[in-house]
Description:
With about 140 residues, the protein is mostly beta strands. Helix content is about 10%, strand content about 45%. The protein has 2 helices and 8 strands. It has helices spanning about 30-40, 40-45; strands at about 5, 20-25, 50, 55-60, 70-80, 80-90, 95-105, 110-125. An 8-stranded antiparallel beta sheet has the order 1-2-8-7-6-5-4-3. The termini are far apart.
Amino acid sequence: MTILSDATTGPEDKTAPDDLHFESVLEAPPAKVWRALTIPDYVAAWLTPTENGTDAARSSRRDLKEPELVDCRLLAAEAPQMLRYAWSEKMQERVLDSVVTFELAPHGEGSTLLRITQGSFVLRPVAANLNQPPLLLAA
Length: 139
């Protein structure tokens, strides 16, 4: 897929003012973009699944030495035009919860308008033990 153009949304949006919006016109039909967003092998190109087989994924961060943990849970899907995820991202001693929506629409001959919206942000502290069993060290 080739990105033909990038754009940001304007004041006509009917979403919360804190929502983030990203739009790109991709040189691929909506069905191909849908596959890239829903087939695990293709999604792994930008989110690598964790070892435990859950829906959690790890993505690299340039400014941190360890990968961050992103937990994605599917909320809604309307093939081939919309995917919505509950998205939790661990950031040092806090977790940022949000909702991420991918919307696809035909755009000209064989192209797709991809709109990604992230909103409903909630920042919460991480439990002191990270909700994991204690680590025991051998003597």
